[in-house]
Write a structure and sequence with these properties.
Elements: E1 7-9, H1 14-24, E2 28-31, H2 37-42, E3 50-53, E4 63-66, E5 69-73, H3 78-83, H4 85-90, H5 92-98, H6 104-109, H7 112-118, H8 124-131, E6 135-140, E7 143-148, H9 149-152, E8 153-155, E9 158-159, E10 166-173, E11 178-185, E12 195-204, E13 207-216, E14 223-224, H10 226-232, H11 240-244, H12 261-279
Parallel strand pairs: 1-3, 2-3
Antiparallel strand pairs: 4-5, 5-10, 6-7, 6-10, 8-9, 11-12, 12-13, 13-14
The structure holds flavin-adenine dinucleotide.
Flavin-adenine dinucleotide binds next to strand 2, helix 7, helix 8 and strand 10.
Length: 282
């Protein structure tokens, strides 16, 4: 299908983009890589009267270190995340998960900011942002505000972004001395996760001092498996299998054509065990 008619704007500054959004209100949509938005427009699930293309905002692209924080521009593509030496050093979990997104074409066009703003419950990078306690910087008419990833995802395809705000930056604290792993199962290669698990483990003298576990496709938003985290803290690596048994607690997975909710709960347990073991270097 052909999308409904819309006006097109390619601003040169973040301020111009925000001003255009503020003027158009709910009628405008932001365009990043277009990999999720264009199908929505073609199916006429949305019919914005204005598209604000962020493609000209070079300042929203790339990665840098700010002390112990990795800063990624919202327009940084998945391929750039995968190839960045800074990401590899400061947040290898993010690079590992980004490498599982779609295929090369998707990773070449799709952006980190687009993936987070789209908030698909099967998206890989929202889960990693939640696991890593990332902070998202949003720019609006009144200036910038910072929202923790754990408060950004509100519901299916719904975030804390207001219609006149842009996601401009993702800030990821470096987890020095932690092991991390992303474990994903999809029905076919290069596809969305049926279930996936992001795990981070800090070990000292054989003891797991802290663990973080976040789940993809186990509810309307990415969720932290806090029962697993609590069961592991202060324990030995031997506790991983038992702790992983708590993975599905408090989750609300959907039953759909890909998998039943029960199968997703089972997958969450198995993948959590595997992800934690890999993160712990076992
Ligand atoms: C074939 C295929 C396979 C895929 N497989 C996977 C997969 O395995 N895992 C996965 O996680 N994803 C997958 N994706 C999705 C991919 O990651 C997309 O790139 C992503 O969902 C959206 O990013 P985008 O840059 O294309 O955003 P767009 O499609 O341009 O935008 C998506 C939404 O976010 C909004 N938006 C975008 N950027 C901003 C911003 N900076 N501020 C505010 N709002 C913004 C837009 O208005 C729109 O509502 C797949 C996509 C395709 C087409």
């Amino acid at each position: 299908m052909i999308p409904a008619a819309f006006d097109y704007l390619r601003p040169a500054t973040v301020e111009d983009a925000v001003a255009a959004l503020a003027e158009a209100g709910e009628e405008a949509k932001v365009l990043a890589g277009g990999h999720s938005l264009l199908p929505v427009l073609r199916l006429r699930l949305a019919a914005p009267t204005l598209l604000v293309d962020l493609g000209g905002l070079a300042q929203l692209r790339g990665t840098r270190l700010d002390g112990d924080t990795l800063v990624l521009g919202a327009m940084t593509t998945h391929a750039e995340v995968v190839g960045s030496a800074e990401v590899a050093a400061a947040a290898p979990l993010l690079a590992q998960a980004a490498a599982t997104v779609g295929d090369r074409q998707v990773r070449h066009r799709g952006t980190l900011g687009g993936s987070l703003a789209h908030a698909d419950p099967a998206g890989d990078l929202p889960t990693v942002a939640v696991a890593l306690d990332a902070e998202l910087v949003l720019a609006g008419p009144a200036g910038r505000r910072t929202v923790p990833a754990r408060e950004f995802f509100l519901d299916y395809f719904t975030t804390a972004l207001r219609p006149d705000e842009l996601l401009v930056e993702v800030r990821v604290p470096r987890l020095a001395g932690w092991g991390t792993h992303y474990e994903k199962v999809s029905r076919t290669a290069q596809a969305w996760a049926t279930v996936a698990v992001a795990a981070a483990v800090q070990r000292q003298n054989g003891t797991i001092t802290q663990a973080r576990v976040a789940l993809t496709s186990m509810g309307p938003t990415p969720v932290r498996a806090t029962a697993v985290e609590q069961a592991l803290a202060g324990g030995s690596a031997d506790a991983i299998a038992e702790a992983a048994g708590h993975a599905a607690e408090g989750t609300h997975p959907a039953s759909d054509t890909t998998a039943s909710a029960d199968y997703r709960r089972h997958l969450a347990t198995v993948l959590t065990r595997r992800a934690l073991a890999a993160a712990a270097g076992l």
